[in-house]
Design goal:
With 327 residues, this protein is α/β, with parallel strands linked by helices. It has one domain: Aldolase class I (TIM Barrel, Alpha-Beta Barrel), CATH 3.20.20.70. It is built from 14 helices and 10 strands. It has an 8-stranded parallel β-barrel with strand order 3-4-5-6-7-8-9-10, surrounded by 7 helices. 46% of the residues are buried.
């Protein structure tokens, strides 16, 4: 175990936050039955995920896969210490979230004008004004407010996004929306490690008391490298998706989120404490193909954990004897 991963004799804590039940299932063609969604959330709770984004309170016409959000949130088994979050885009969604006893409202807008218009059909200023109203409803219901800033590391239509632009929007949400948490989202997998380290360090220096989450996609294969760069720069919370499913439906070229079990597997091997029971997490991931009707990206499901050993060949003893006989 590396000394850098130990604080005062204890392993450094990294908080894993599951988004597959929202970010993953929202793009699936197959409708996962309500009882199966509930069972999946319960399995993730028992596996030790710190936060679970259970659903999204959006128009059922826009995302029919999540039309049962209220029922799912009402009927899950809530485990003490686990935060049950939902994406809440507007006042109507906020009312539904309150009725379903949502622990945390996750509010979303983009760092760039082009992506915000393409994704939300509003300017950034219009989105911001609406989210201020939604946040007020959340606070009145004693729910936490997190703001997810899409395209914080790059926009598929505008390219690089200046760090100052991202920080300026973070400042407005911390100061005016009253957000207690900010998620910096790599919506289309454009982030790279040195960029991640720079933005993470800048955020941490300015808002050391604000909960910071990093949300990476693995579009260009740099998901785990970006997680490690963020940890080195002071981050300790990460969104990830069971099985590596997911992707923004309005982000050209986007693929799945970083895979929950792959990130947990890597971090535990490196000496971090994720609080997650990896065996239970993998067992939950193995349920996905049957629910969504296709294979999943997870390499841990495909290959197993590093020390999942395989039996020797049936004729191993004979092979050994022949080898020894040759001297």
């Amino acid at each position: 175990m590396s000394a850098s991963n130990v604080w005062n004799g204890a392993r450094k804590r990294i908080f894993m936050q599951e988004v597959g039940t929202r970010d993953g299932l929202q793009v699936e063609q197959a409708f996962v039955p309500t009882e199966d969604k509930i069972a999946l959330v319960n399995a993730l709770s028992r596996a030790g995920m710190a936060k679970i984004e259970v659903t999204a309170f959006v128009s059922p016409k826009a995302i029919p896969a999540l039309r049962d959000g209220e029922q799912v949130l009402r009927e899950i088994d809530r485990v003490e210490g686990v935060v049950y979050s939902a994406l809440v885009p507007n006042v109507r969604g906020a009312e539904r979230a309150v009725d379903a006893c949502t622990d945390e409202f996750n509010l979303v807008m983009s760092a760039t004008e082009s992506h915000n218009l393409a994704n939300l059909r509003m300017t950034r200023e219009q989105s911001f004004n609406g989210l201020v109203e939604v946040a007020a409803i959340a606070r009145n219901a004693n729910a936490a407010v997190n703001v997810s800033l899409s395209c914080a590391f790059g926009c598929p239509m505008e390219g690089d996004v200046p760090v100052q632009t991202v920080l300026d929007w973070c400042a407005r949400h911390v100061d005016e929306t009253g957000a207690t948490g900010i998620t910096l989202c790599d919506t289309t997998g454009m982030a790279y490690p040195t960029q991640v380290a720079e933005l993470t360090a800048a955020f941490r220096a300015r808002w050391p008391g604000t909960e910071l989450t990093l949300h990476f996609h693995n579009t260009r294969g740099m998901g785990l490298a970006n997680v490690l760069a963020a940890i080195d720069a002071g981050a300790d919370r990460f969104d990830a998706s069971l099985g590596g499913i997911g992707g923004c439906p309005y982000a050209p070229g986007a693929t799945g989120n970083v895979c929950s079990e792959e990130i947990v597997h890597a971090l535990e091997l490196m000496g971090y404490d994720t609080g997650v029971d990896l065996a239970k997490l993998v067992a939950a991931s193995k349920l996905l193909p049957g629910l969504i009707g296709h294979d999943i990206p997870s390499q841990i499901v495909k290959a197993g954990q590093r020390l999942d050993l395989h039996p020797r060949p049936a004729d191993f003893d004979a092979i050994r004897e022949r080898a020894l006989a040759k001297g």
